[in-house]
Each structure stands twice: as structure tokens, then as C-alpha cells.
Amino acid sequence: MNTMKRRTFLKTASGVAAINFACQGRTERNLAVKKPNVVLILTDDQSFRTIHALNNDIIRTPNIDSLVKRGTAFTNAWYMGSSNAAVCMPSRAMLMTGKTLFHLENMGRVLPESHPTLPETFRNNGYRTFQTGKWHNDRGSFARSFSTAGKIFFGGMSSHYNIPIQDFDPEGEYPNSRSYHVTDTHSTELYANSAVTFLNSLNDDTPFFMYVAFQSPHDPRQMPDEYLNMYDPASIPLPDNFMPAHPFNFGEVNHRDEKLERWPRTSEKIRRHMADYFGFITFTDTAIGRILTALDRSGHIDDTIIVFAADNGLAVGQHGLMGKQNPYEHSVHVPLIICGPGVQSDVQTDTPCYLIDIYPTLCGLAGMEIPSSVEGASLLPVIRGEKYEVRDTQFFAFKNFQRAIKSGDLKLIEYNVAGERHTQLFDLAKDPWETVNLADDPAYRDKLASMRVLLKQAMADHDDAADLDMEGWGVPEIGPWKPGKWIDPNPDVYYDSSWPSG
Questions:
Q1: pLDDT tens digits, residue range 26-82?
Q2: What's the sign of the alpha-carbon dihedral 439, 440, 441, 445?
Q3: Rounded distance, CA 355 to CA 41, Å?
Q4: What's the pTM?
Q5: Domains along the chain?
Q6: If you count Cβ atoms within 10 Å of the first and of the last residue's Cβ in the chain, which end, N or C, has fewer?
């Protein structure tokens, strides 16, 4: 296994580049005959610390592990943040359009024609495009993007056994009501079945783009008993940043995600949540294995680019939180693996990147022009060994009361909630769990000032209208921190559609 880090890149770049150039030459000759297929697999709420082959000795993910072995794992991948509490809506909108957060239309609900989607671009280049699973954006962009589809869920969340499913309509007509049916097949199995059926139906050389968008491991954590009972809560160690409650009001304390467990969080309850979470991820991994097996049997495993990623992470007790409405690593740091033609195998790189970088990277691997609307940076130079990084800072935002910037090992988070300002500064190299706030440490005074300058510049560069120098930024209208009604995280009923989680 080749681990590419900043400190080793300069020593190994020339050799890696030679390998990649040779591989790229073969790829370009192959592209003259047939374009590579693409399989994009996206999970829902899967944090970066949940893959056995990368960072977790307890969890079982043999099929995702096989992708790590087969391709290049980007161990420093993030999504940029969210302008609403349903963070998966803008996250998936950014993934599909390659646009940055503050350049989305209507918080990502609508993907306008001026922002051609990733599958739409492939469709316009002669690909058969297929989708199954969750589409948390508008129906018009879905119709433009896919030439066929399986089981479609237009929404943010549901019970996994009572999903309002719509079937593909070649006319692109997907009205909001009276056009769906409810199935009792588990969502994970349903979407895997649909993907396998599509792969089994391939009967010509038309290149295909398949997008499988799971709802798992998003709560409610419903799954077969085999997986529900797979992990013993008592054997799961608590994360280093476990807290009974967050130390201050971060702005979303009364959101439904934070009501999935009572305050104070207890070690016993959080271990139970973690066991369910791990079981759900292993269940999803099994479904991914079925898709990979079908791809292999179709004869296309060697001419297909496979991308595995998640839309966002999840706290599950870290920092006293349950959800993902925050800029901590457990929420914004996501898995990203790319494998297939033109990509080195068994490589791990800590090159910083965003999910929006998937769009231009896939265009580059397929030899296609990148639409001018795309703002992501292609990772192809990293994959080829030509450079270590494609950006030197990473910017994060949540609604209008959390902002963060990462540069090198330092990460700054600024909050303004209910008139209270809070600053956190972490050194991720020394403190990867973000437990030691250095904002008041005299030794970091100059670094804090520099990071604030970088944050303000990043906000300006991303057309973020918030002004950190003004008393008015943030959410003064939010009242005192008082936890609301607790919600059972595993109900057997359909979730109320008024809960805007994603």
C-alpha cells in the first residue's frame, strides 16, 4: 500500500508520476475505443472514521475495503457545509453540479439548467445514465440527468421499510402527489436490487453512468436483526471526543437530530447508538458487495470507474452531539475512494479535497470537457502524481452562525448564536479529535490572527455575505438553550415529512 502524504510527496512524486503517465497512456488509447463506464455510490450520513481498511479496526466493511485496495482513497475529503438543517440537500446539490455552497440555487433545492449536473454531462456525451435511490433535489434536474432509472425516492428521509417510491418516467413527469407507491422492502436492499437489475440488463457497448444513492446509514436505524445485533455495545470504545453535552449553544441544539438521544448523553446510550450505526454501515457494505459482484459478472469491472463517497458525516455522541449540523471533522469529513482505469490501486493520499471535485475528476478520467459552471478542482493531477494538492485551504459554513477554515493542520471555527460569540482553534495533527481549544493559548495568538484573515478571505472568495466584524451576524433571534422533546431513533412509523433532515 502506497500512502501519499505531503511530507513524502516530493520524494516519491517522480516515480509515481511515471507509473501514472504510463497508466494514463493506456487509458487514452482505450478511450479511443470505448469510454470508461462510471459507477457512483453515495451513502447517507457515513462519517470518515467508519471504514475498516482506513481507520476503524472494529467495523466490518469488506466490500468498501476492496475498493480501498483497488483504487485511491482520499483520506482528507470534505463537503463544504450547508445553508439549512437538511445538510444532505446542498451537499448532494454541490456533488451533482460541482458548485460551491453559496453559488447554489435556493439552498440546493433546485439545480437549474445553467448548472448542468454530473450525470447530465455524461448523458450529453453519449452515456446511458441510470439512477436509483435518494434524490433530494428538484424533479426537473432529475429528468434532465437520467435516461433511465430504477426506484426513486424524492425526499430527505423516511422509514426504511415504508418508502414513497416513484418509478422512472421517460417523459420526466414526477408530480408531488398521487404518483408514488410505498414498498416494504428495505431501502438498502431495494436500491441494490435496482442497481443489480440494471447491470444485468446491459446488452451492448454503450457506456453507462450509474448513480446509486443509498438512504443508509441515515436514521431510523432499521435493518435485519443479523446486523442490528452484530456489534456488542459494551465492546465499542467511546470516541476520544465523547461529551455528555456540547459546551455551548452551537445554534442547532433544538434540531431533530439532536433530539435522537436525551441529555446528558451517557456512555451506555452512545455505545448503543454506535453499535446500531456500525451495523447499518455493514449492512450497506453487503449491498455494495452485491453491486460489485453484478458489475464483475457483467464483464465491466475492469473498464468502469468506481467512486464511493458519503454526502456528510455524523456525530453520534462526539462533542455531545448526535447530528451533522456543525463543522467538526466528524460531520464535514467524509470518505472518498476512486478506482478504475487511470487510477492507481492500493494508494491512500491525504490530499485535501471536496466532494465537488468528483465532477471534474470524472470528466477528466472519461476524456470529456468540464462544463464552465463547475467550480470543483480536478483531482486528476493528484491521481497522476503531478502534484500533491489542488487547494491550500478548506472553507466550511453552516447557516449564518457557524464559519470555519482549515489550513494545513490548523482549523478555526467561529460561532455567533443568540448574541454569544465563541471561537475554537484546533491543531488537527496533535489533536485529530478536536478536544483542545487553542484559541486562548498565547502561543497560538499569531496563528489565530492569521487564520481569521484566511477565513475572511475565504468568505469573500465564496460570496458569503456574512460579516464576522459586525455584531449582527449570527442568530440573535434564537432563544435560550433548552432541549426539546426526545425522539425515538428507531421508530416503526413513517417520519413526519415536516422534519427537514437529510
A1: 333 344 458 999 999 999 999 999 999 998 999 999 999 999 999 999 999 999 999
A2: positive
A3: 13
A4: 0.90
A5: 2-389 (3.40.720.10), 402-461 (3.30.1120.10)
A6: N
